[in-house]
Design goal:
heterotrimer; A alpha+beta (131); B alpha/beta (400); C alpha/beta (184); A: 131 residues; alpha+beta; Alpha-Beta Plaits; two-stranded antiparallel sheet; B: 400 residues; alpha/beta; Rossmann fold; seven-stranded mixed beta sheet; 12 helices; 17 strands; 40% helix; binds iron/sulfur cluster
C-alpha cells in the first residue's frame, strides 16, 4: 500500500514529475521522503537470502549483482572489501545473489522468510561432490 | 527602440533569434524545409558568433532526446524540424512537456508522407496538437523572429515552464525573403533575460530524478498540474506579448482580426494564408461586401474566450484547415464549432480543406470561398456542403 | 506593386538574384518579397523564382502573379512555355546570344511582346569567370526598368557582396554595368 502522506494533491507536486534524493545537502544523508531508501519492500519477499560466513570468500559477486543494493559491503582491518550484511528492509527476495555465489557449498541460500537465521545456518548443506 | 532593417527569410529569422537568445545547446537533425535554421546556427557556432553547443545527432528522435537531456541538465535549448522529422520526434515531445522543460522548437510546417512532399501544410502541426506544448503560429519572417524571442521568455517563466513550438509555413514563410526589423543583440537578450535553471540535473548538491514513473496514484495529478500550467500560460503569454510590443512596437494577439466588427462572412484560418485572405477581404469590402478575417495565432492553449468575442454576430463562418482530416471535419473547424456551441452562437459553419502539400491558395480562391458562404447567409441556412475543397483537380469533391 | 518572375535552371543563381534585388530594394525603404518554387529537382532543372516590391507591406503569400517583368537567365528556356499569367504590359528580359530577328524567327511566340535581349552568360563568363547570369541580369533590369541609377545600384551590390573576394566583387560590378550598357 502507498503510504498516505505521499498522496498529495496535484498542486503540491514539483513541476515535471521531479523527485529529490535528499533533504538538504547529500553529505548530510537526510533522505527525502521520495527516496527509495525510505520505502521497505520486505513484504514482497517469500524467501529470504541467508549468509554463511564460514564458506564466504568475499568475492563481492553478490554485491555487484543485487538489483536492489541490498548486499551491504564492509571493510576488514586491512582495508579490504568484504561481505558485510544483508539489508532486509530493501531485499525483495529475488535470489540473484544466491545464483551468482561461486562457493561450494554456497555462502548465500534462500530460506523461508519466517525461519530464524540461526535455524537456517543449522540446516546448511554439505559440500557437493563433483560427479 | 532603434531597430535594424534587414532582408531575411523565415528560416534565417528563426536562426537569428536563436543566436540572440544565447542558447546553451542546439541538438538537431536537418530536414527540409527547416534545414537552414540549424545550418545557419551551426555556421554561427563555427564562426564563433555564439558559444553554445551544436550537437549533430542521428535522428529527430535523438535530437529531441538530446534537447530533453540538455534542458533537464539546466540549459537553454532549442531546435527545429519539419514533417517526418516532427513525426519521429513526437514521442519525445510528450516527454519534454511532461518533464516541463522550456525547450523552443521551430516547427517549419510541411506535409506528412505518403505520398512524399516537401511543401507546406499543417499536418505536422496538427499531429503535435495534444503533445502538451504551447503552439504559436507565425505568418511571415518578421513574426517568426518576434515570436521566437517571446517563445523563450514564455517557456521559461516559472509559472509556465512548458516547451513552446513556433510554427511557420514551409517555403511560404521559411524560404520567402522579406524585409523585417530586428532588435539590437543586447536588447533582444535583455528582453529574454538570463536563463534561470530550476532543479537542474547537473547539480551534485541536489540530486533529482526527472519524469519519474507515476502509476495510478499519481499520474492524474501530475497531468493536471501540466494542464493547469497550460491554462496559466494565457496570462503569461499576454504579459510577454505586451512587453514585446512596448519594446518593439509590434503587437501580437491570441487571435488576429481584420474587418470583423460588422462582418457577415468570416474566414478563420492559421498561417501565411491569413495575409492573402486579408487582401481578399479588401477586394470584397471595396465591392461593399461585409466580410472579415480571424487568424488564430495561439493554437495551444486554444484561446476559446478570445475567439468567442468575434463570432457572436456573424452569419457564416468558414474555417480553413490546411491538413486532411481523413474522416472528420478539420481540427481548427472542431475548435471553432466548440466555441460556437459553448456560447450558444448560431452562424452557419463551413469547412474547407485546402493547400495540401503546398497547393496554392490565391486571392481569387478566397474570394470564391467568401462568395460561396454568402449564398448560405442569403438563404439563412447551410446550402453548401459542410466540408469542401478548393483548387483541387478532378470532379468536385465535398462531404456532408 | 512591382512583380517579377525569373525563369532559370536550378544552380544558376536565380534565388540569389531574387534575394539581392530584395536586399537593395529593402535598403531603399521598399517592402519586398522574394520566393521560388522549389521541387525536388536536381541542378539544371528549370525553376521559377519571384520578386514582389511595393510601398506597403506585402501580405500576399500565394504564388499567383501577373509579372511586370519576366527575366530569363538561361538561353534555352525561351523554347519552353514562359508566357503564362502575363499581361499586355509585361516586359521580357532574355539572356541570349541571338539577335531580336533570330529569336523571333526561332520562337514565334515572342511576336508582339516587348522583349529586351542581353547575353548574361557571355558577360558573366568574361567578367566573373564563370556562367553566373544572375547579377548581370539585374544590371539589365535596372536599364529597362529605370528603378535605380546604375552607379547607385552597382554600389549597393558591391556592399551586398562584401563577404566575397575582391576579384569576384569587381567582376560582378563590371558584369552588372556591362549588361546595363549592352541590353537592347
Ligand atoms: S535476494 Fe535479491 S534483493 Fe535480496 S539480497 Fe539477494 S539479490 Fe538482493
Ligand atoms: S558471492 Fe558468495 S562468496 Fe562472494 S561475497 Fe557474496 S556470499 Fe561471499
Amino acid at each position: 500500500m502507498t503510504e498516505e502522506h505521499l498522496l498529495k494533491g496535484w498542486e503540491e507536486f514539483e513541476p515535471g514529475a521531479t523527485l529529490f534524493s535528499f533533504e538538504g545537502k547529500p553529505d548530510q544523508e537526510v533522505h527525502h521522503e521520495n527516496n527509495s531508501v525510505q520505502h521497505s519492500v520486505a513484504d514482497w519477499r517469500v524467501d529470504k537470502p541467508v549468509h554463511n560466513k564460514e564458506f564466504c570468500i568475499d568475492c563481492q559477486f553478490c554485491w555487484v549483482y543485487c538489483p536492489d543494493t541490498s548486499i551491504i559491503p564492509d571493510v576488514d582491518d586491512k582495508g579490504k572489501g568484504i561481505f558485510g550484511h544483508i539489508d532486509y528492509k530493501h531485499c525483495k527476495g529475488c535470489g540473484i545473489c544466491v545464483d551468482v555465489c561461486p562457493t561450494n557449498p554456497k555462502s548465500l541460500l534462500m530460506f523461508a522468510d519466517h525461519l530464524p537465521v540461526e535455524e537456517a545456518l543449522r540446516q546448511w548443506p554439505e559440500k557437493e561432490e563433483k560427479k | 527602440m532603434e531597430q535594424n532593417r534587414i532582408v531575411w527569410d523565415g528560416n534565417m529569422a528563426a536562426s537569428q533569434a536563436m543566436r540572440q537568445a544565447k542558447i546553451d545547446v542546439v541538438a538537431a537533425y536537418p530536414i527540409t524545409p527547416s534545414t537552414p535554421i540549424v545550418q545557419n546556427y551551426s555556421q554561427f557556432v563555427a564562426d564563433g558568433d555564439v558559444d553554445g553547443e551544436f550537437v549533430m545527432v542521428e535522428s529527430e528522435h535523438s535530437a529531441m532526446s538530446a534537447c530533453v537531456g540538455a534542458a533537464s541538465a539546466g540549459g537553454r535549448v532549442a531546435t527545429a524540424t519539419s514533417s517526418q522529422g516532427y513525426a519521429l520526434m513526437i514521442e519525445v515531445l510528450y516527454q519534454a512537456s511532461g518533464m516541463r522543460l522550456p525547450i523552443v522548437l521551430n516547427a517549419v510546417n510541411r506535409a506528412l508522407a505518403a505520398p512524399l512532399n516537401i511543401h507546406g501544410d499543417h499536418s505536422d502541426m496538427y499531429l503535435g496538437r495534444d503533445a502538451g506544448w504551447i503552439n504559436m503560429v507565425a505568418n511571415n519572417p518578421q513574426e517568426v523572429y518576434d515570436l521566437n524571442l517571446c517563445a523563450f521568455k514564455i517557456a521559461e517563466d516559472y509559472s509556465v515552464r512548458l516547451p513552446v513550438a513556433v510554427n511557420q509555413d514551409g517555403f511560404l514563410v521559411s524560404h520567402t525573403t522579406e524585409a523585417l526589423n530586428y532588435l539590437p543583440d543586447d536588447e533582444a537578450y535583455k528582453f529574454i533575460g538570463d536563463y534561470k535553471p530550476h532543479n537542474p540535473m547537473l547539480d551534485p548538491e541536489k540530486p533529482v530524478t526527472y519524469g519519474a514513473q507515476t502509476e495510478g496514484e499519481w499520474h492524474y495529478e501530475h497531468k493536471m498540474r501540466h494542464e493547469h500550467a497550460m491554462y496559466n500560460s494565457f496570462g503569461v503569454i499576454e504579459k510577454v506579448l505586451a512587453e514585446y510590443k512596448e519594446l518593439s512596437g509590434r503587437e501580437y494577439k491570441f487571435v488576429e482580426t481584420y474587418q470583423v466588427d460588422d462582418a457577415e462572412e468570416i474566414i478563420i484560418c492559421m498561417g501565411s494564408v491569413a495575409g492573402t485572405t486579408q487582401l481578399a477581404v479588401d477586394k470584397l469590402r471595396a465591392e461593399g461586401k461585409k466580410v472579415g478575417l480571424v487568424s488564430v495565432r495561439l493554437w495551444r492553449p486554444f484561446p476559446k474566450e478570445e475567439l468567442a468575442k468575434y463570432l457572436g454576430k456573424t452569419k457564416t463562418i468558414t474555417v480553413l484547415d490546411r491538413s486532411a482530416p481523413l474522416g472528420s471535419t478539420g481540427a481548427l473547424y472542431n475548435e471553432v464549432a466548440a466555441v460556437m456551441v459553448d456560447n450558444g452562437y448560431n452562424a452557419v459553419l463551413l469547412n474547407y480543406v485546402y493547400g495540401l502539400g503546398g497547393r496554392d491558395m490565391t486571392i481569387d480562391h478566397l474570394t470564391e470561398i467568401f462568395n460561396s458562404a454568402k449564398e448560405c447567409s442569403d438563404a439563412g441556412k447551410r446550402v453548401k456542403p459542410l466540408i469542401q475543397t478548393i483548387n483541387l483537380r478532378g470532379k468536385e469533391l465535398s462531404f456532408y | 506593386m512591382l512583380e517579377l518572375r525569373w525563369h532559370s535552371r536550378a544552380g544558376q543563381g536565380a534565388v540569389t538574384g531574387v534575394k539581392a534585388l530584395c536586399d537593395v530594394m529593402a535598403h531603399e525603404g521598399k517592402h519586398v518579397q522574394g520566393f521560388s518554387v522549389y521541387g525536388a529537382e536536381k541542378r539544371g532543372a528549370p525553376m521559377n523564382a519571384f520578386n514582389r516590391v511595393d510601398e506597403n507591406p506585402i501580405i500576399d503569400h500565394s504564388k499567383a502573379m501577373k509579372p511586370d517583368y519576366v527575366l530569363v537567365i538561361d538561353p534555352s528556356l525561351v523554347y519552353t512555355d514562359i508566357h503564362y499569367d502575363i499581361k499586355e504590359t509585361t516586359k521580357y528580359i532574355i539572356t541570349t546570344h541571338l539577335s531580336k530577328e533570330e529569336l523571333l524567327e526561332a520562337v514565334p511566340a515572342f511576336a508582339g511582346k516587348e522583349i529586351y535581349l542581353v547575353d548574361c552568360i557571355k558577360i558573366s563568363q568574361e567578367e566573373i569567370g564563370r556562367a553566373m547570369p544572375n547579377t548581370p541580369m539585374l544590371g539589365a533590369l535596372m536599364k529597362v526598368s529605370g528603378l535605380f541609377e546604375i552607379d547607385d545600384f552597382a554600389g549597393s551590390m558591391e556592399k551586398l557582396l562584401y563577404k566575397f573576394p575582391q576579384k569576384i566583387i569587381d567582376g560582378n560590378v563590371k558584369a552588372i554595368k556591362r549588361a546595363y550598357a549592352e541590353v537592347k
